[in-house]
Amino acid sequence: MKLADCDDANPCTYDQCDAAHNGCFNTKHPDGNACGGGKTCKAGVCQ
Fold this sequence. Notes:
single chain, three-stranded antiparallel sheet, two-stranded antiparallel ribbon
């Protein structure tokens, strides 16, 4: 069984795969986490 590719290409989320249910979970990083280019995460979006 092939696992799903759970990378949503969002630097402000944790990408997780639940093999038992063959599903992806993308939970938000806390606000203020660095996400590149001098930007930070806010509500799951790199700004």
